[in-house]
Amino acid sequence: MFASTCLSGRVVLDLGQLHPGPQAAFMLGQLGATVIKVERPDGGDAARALGAETFAKYNRGKLSIALDLKRPGDREILLGLAGRSHALIENFRPGVMERLGLGYARLSAVNPALVMCSISGYGQDGPYAGRPGHDMNFLAGAGYWAVPSQVEDVVARPRVRLSDYCGAMYAALALVVAMMTARESGRGQHLDLSLQDAMTAWTAPGIDALVRTGTDVEDLDHVMPDNDVFRTADGRHLVLGILEDKFWLALADVLAPLCPALAAAEYRTRRGRLANKRELSSRLKGLIASRTLAQWAAVLDPEAIPWSPVPLPHEWFDDAHVRARGMVQRHSDGGLDLRFPVRFSGQWAPPSGTAPALDQHRAGILGWLAGGAMPGKADAPCS
After folding, report:
1. Of 1, 37, 68, 30, which is closest to residue 346 (Cα–Cα)?
2. Are residues 129 and 47 located together in one domain of the fold?
3. pLDDT of 277-327, one tens digit each?
4. Domain membership flag for residue 227
5. Final residue in a domain of this structure, among 261, 281, 309
6. Nearest alpha-carbon partner for 162 in 198, 128, 130
7. Sorted alphabetically, which SUPFAM superfamilies does this protein's record hold (predicted)?
8. Are the C-beta atoms of residues 203 and 147 closer than 8 Å to each other?
9. Pairing between strand 34-39 and 63-66?
10. CA 109, CA 83: separation in Å to the nearest integer?
11. Which terminus of the chain has fewer Cβ atoms in its 10 Å neighbourhood, N or C?
12. Residue-level pLDDT at 4
């Protein structure tokens, strides 16, 4: 673990469920904070019901205590923990914490320096604040599918939970800033993080471009025929990341012997390729579909061209670069433990340890609340 960070000695209460709240807390734990996971006694975090590995993904290294926040005694314990902690993360629907008697005003009364982060789908106010939803609902609300990204675009489900991950990242960043501010000023604050707002920060420029230029892909400069995913003859896929003219010229030199039309003068500049995007897209797709992925690898690998094969799962785990970077660790319990994806020049954080059993650290946490030492993180990290 880091010898010292701005989060060393910081205690974060994680009242989150499923994905964004627990992930934000997990990232703070990776960077040195001690995270206490507060769970329902009847089953704990809903992610536990989705399987041990799903729960472990965002909860390794945390301490667990089970509290029924509808019971006065357990609410008092939570208030006591808030009084000694630096941040609290919750992702209930707006109004739930207030109804429990645990809104920001109450928490701030017991600890003026506490930072509370409320993560919700649509925010703490606004017409949609009370709506239920999950990741894809917030993507739709943020206009994720409003702007095409390919010449022949389709609306399809993303492969990862984009709004959940996006929101967790913004939450973690905002929490670090707010905790550092509270350390200086002695005053905490309430952070209102909407998952739709977080995604909107990414999608709004594309939506604006669409509104200003029209609805046809011909008018959208970010929709490029040579920066796309292509299907190969054996049903595999490869990616071309062509953007600068120098990369197109290098690609054209390689492909022109196979398809002389790609050497045409109108394709030599990005503006020319955009002006002829449908024609160029059709030619590239037809050519790439004529050979297998292995055949294309033999042609493209020796060249300085930004291309990538789309790997199968087992191929990705065996990839030399993935292994060399060491991001993915195989934990002693058989699950994956992902390291924090930024390397610090001082010392990189080790794997995060095991996921806690429900209420595993109750005695130690209550001992800390009574003035004792904070218990260690959930088991020692594997080497």
Report:
1. 1
2. yes
3. 999 999 999 999 999 999 999 999 999 999 999 999 999 999 999 999 988
4. no
5. 309
6. 198
7. CoA-transferase family III (CaiB/BaiF) (SSF89796)
8. yes
9. parallel
10. 9
11. C
12. 62
